Structures are given as structure tokens and as C-alpha cells.
Amino acid sequence: EAFERYAGVDPKALSEEEQSYLLATEIEPKLTGEPFYIMTHFPPTQAALAKVSDRGAERFELFYNGMELANGYDELTDPEEHKRRLLEQNRLRAALGKGVYPETVEPLGPFPDCCGVAVGFDRLLMLKLGVSDIADVLS
Prior knowledge:
By secondary structure, the chain is an alpha+beta fold. It is 32% helix and 22% strand. It has 4 helices and 5 strands; from the N terminus they run ααββββαβα. Strands 1, 2, 3, 4 and 5 form a 5-stranded antiparallel β-sheet that branches. The termini are far apart.
């Protein structure tokens, strides 16, 4: 919905790189006007290490005035899917001329269902201090 509302495109018609670019440049900066926005069910290409269902990647991001404050997801626990995603990321990175992850990296799992949320302390500090450049709060 966010892709259609804020960028005027169907995310299914875009590559992973195009989705990432539009999220960062066209969608996230427009999540202002309300105190908070929560974006859920990202396109499967944006799953990272989240499970994917028929609704999309089972993850969310919390935004305040266009700034991501938190990122959470239902952790992928299938070791075969971990490996498939790692190999796919290496293929994409190689095609873009970027370094690839070592082949010795083994996928995690299997492990029990779990989830979590990462909160950007540096971003909370930015809000508290009223600064707009993250470099102003890093040591």
C-alpha cells in the first residue's frame, strides 16, 4: 500500500534494488504528519531474515517524522531458507560488483520460533537533542 500511495507503483513490478531505493527516497521521507507510522508486511524481497507469508515479509518498522526508530520481525528459523537467501544475496552482490559473504558462513537454525525489535538509541538521541544528522550523536 505504501508503494502505491507514496511512490505510485506496484512493488511486485520492481526489482529488489528498485524497492530498496524507493523505500529510502520516496516512501520513508513521506511518513510525516502523524506522530508515528508503522509499516508492515514489506515485499518479500525486503524480508532480510524475516519469515515470509502470503501477506509479505513478516516484519515492521516504526517511523517518527520520516525517521526509522525501530525494526522488528518474525525470525526466519528454517536453515535451508537461510542458506538459499545467503546464496541469492551473494549472487546479487557479485552482479553489482560488491563483495560477497564468505562461503564458510553457515545459516542459523533450526531454532524455536522467536521475534524481536531493534530500537535505534542513536535515533532516539537525535530526537531528544533536536538534531537531524546522525553524525551529531555518534562518538
